[in-house]
């Protein structure tokens, strides 16, 4: 006999939907103005030249160009060249 509870969600069956965070444009890829480069919570990657950070720490391209990631003083940055 199957041990199925009444017709409602099981107690341990809850999970949040994924937020689709992460790198959207990698190094060497072309970016247009306004394109999202990195979607993140907290400033794990910082904004370099021609990149701006929105209120939720998402990094966007200011100008058209090529995406480049680099490290400076132990912190990771992204710039558009």
TrEMBL record:
SUPFAM superfamilies xrefs: Ribosomal L27 protein-like
Which InterPro entries does its entry note?
Answer: Ribosomal_bL27
Q: Can you quote a single GO CC term?
A: cytosolic large ribosomal subunit
For this UniProt record, the keywords arranged alphabetically read as follows: Ribonucleoprotein, Ribosomal protein
Keyword Ion transport assigned: no
Species annotation: Candidatus Roizmanbacteria bacterium CG_4_9_14_0_2_um_filter_39_13
Q: Which family does it belong to?
A: Belongs to the bacterial ribosomal protein bL27 family.
Q: Which GO terms label this protein's molecular function in UniProt?
A: structural constituent of ribosome
Listed GO biological process terms: translation
From the Swiss-Prot or TrEMBL record, give the protein name: Large ribosomal subunit protein bL27
């Amino acid at each position: 006999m199957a041990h199925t509870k009444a017709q409602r969600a099981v107690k341990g069956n809850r999970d949040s939907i994924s937020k689709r965070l992460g790198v959207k444009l990698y190094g060497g890829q072309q970016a247009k103005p306004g394109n999202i480069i990195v979607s993140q919570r907290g400033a794990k990657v910082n904004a370099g030249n021609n990149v701006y950070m929105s209120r939720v720490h998402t990094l966007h391209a200011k100008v058209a160009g090529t995406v480049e990631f680099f490290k400076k003083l132990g912190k990771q940055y992204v710039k558009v060249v």
